[in-house]
Write a structure and sequence with these properties.
This is Gene transfer agent family protein. The chain is mainly alpha-helical. Helix content is 47%, strand content 10%. The protein has a two-stranded antiparallel ribbon with strand order 1-2.
Length: 118
């Protein structure tokens, strides 16, 4: 995987930062990343995708897909398989927090009522 080390995420642009494999990275669910997730989750619309995520029940495979799409949206080149092999600082709990933050900045405060469960 190749990526870009970046010091700060801009939450107004929907960016979240995480330390992955020892490097600070920017993740962002861009329109392209969201389209990728619609396909991966067989969602017909952004509303369907938001509804699916609002249930708060995501598998480890779901976390990988979301993180991979968001890493690519943040300018990092990686495959879903690469992401499955990565180490986020803070472990699984940090992965869940990063995904939750991505969903919050992308879909808004409705997600606050539904924490992400592994």
């Amino acid at each position: 995987m190749t990526g870009t080390s970046v010091a700060r995420a801009n939450r107004r642009r929907g960016e979240v930062e995480a330390v992955i494999d020892g490097e600070r990275r920017i993740l962002c669910l861009t329109l392209g990343a969201l389209a990728e997730l619609e396909t991966a989750f067989a969602a017909d619309s952004l509303a369907d995708l938001a509804n699916r995520f609002s249930r708060g029940k995501l598998s480890s495979r779901d976390l990988i897909r979301i993180l991979a799409a968001a890493l690519r949206g943040g300018g990092n080149q990686c495959s879903d398989e690469d992401v499955g092999d990565m180490c986020l600082e803070g472990g699984l709990a940090a992965s869940i927090d990063v995904v939750r933050s991505l969903l919050l900045v992308t879909f808004g405060s409705a997600q606050e009522a539904a924490p992400v469960n592994s």
